[in-house]
Amino acid sequence: MVHTPETPETRAQPPEAPKLRVSIVRSGGFAGLNRTWTAEATSEADISAWSALLDQCSWRGADTPGAGASVGPNAGPSASPVPDRFSYRISVSVSTNNTASTNDTVSTNNTVSTTNTVQPERSAVLAESELNGPWRQLLDRVQSAE
Predict the structure, then answer these.
(1) Could you list the residue range(s) of the whole structural domain that residue 32 is in?
(2) Tens digits of per-residue pLDDT, 71-130?
């Protein structure tokens, strides 16, 4: 049997920390221009704080404007989108980069494989009038992160 010593290229790297990404695209308005804000969190504390806020948002049925994604005492379907008003597409994804090393003691091949894992994305499309409660807090927090 042949054993090849580890080198920096073949040594297992510690797994990269997860990354949470929140993107908000505002579209519509009088000029019909899009504006995008993005926030990323990589530390465990930041991801936990963002996740707490994201969990407060009502994601069920929030895939089209006016679908009642708002929360609070007035939650429920809103009127049809109003011309020249904004709509907001909110997307959340979590990705990890895991690196694993396999040291094959029978042959001289050492392999390092890297896989990117992206957890299922949550998304919502909200009319401007639906941005209240946690949704408004989320928008404000993402905007202030830039």
Answers:
(1) 19-145
(2) 333 333 444 556 778 999 999 998 876 543 333 334 344 444 444 555 558 899 999 999
How long, in residues, is the chain? 146
Residue 6 lies in a domain: no
The 3 state secondary structure assigned to the chain is: CCCCCCCCCCCCCCCCCCEEEEEEEEEECCCCCCEEEEEEECCHHHHHHHHHHHHHCCCCCCCCCCCCCCCCCCCCCCCCCCCCCEEEEEEEEEEEEEEEEEECCCCCCEEEEEEEEEEEEEEEEEEHHHCCCHHHHHHHHHHHHC
Q: Is residue 54 part of a domain?
A: yes
Decide if 113 contacts 99 (C-beta within 8 A).
yes
3 inside domain: no
Backbone φ, ψ for residue 99 (5° rounding): -115, 130
Q: Are 35 and 95 in contact (CB under 8 A)?
A: no
Phi first, then psi: give them for residue 50, nearest 5 degrees.
-65, -45
Structural domains of the chain, count: 1
- Is residue 44, in this structure, part of any structural domain at all? yes
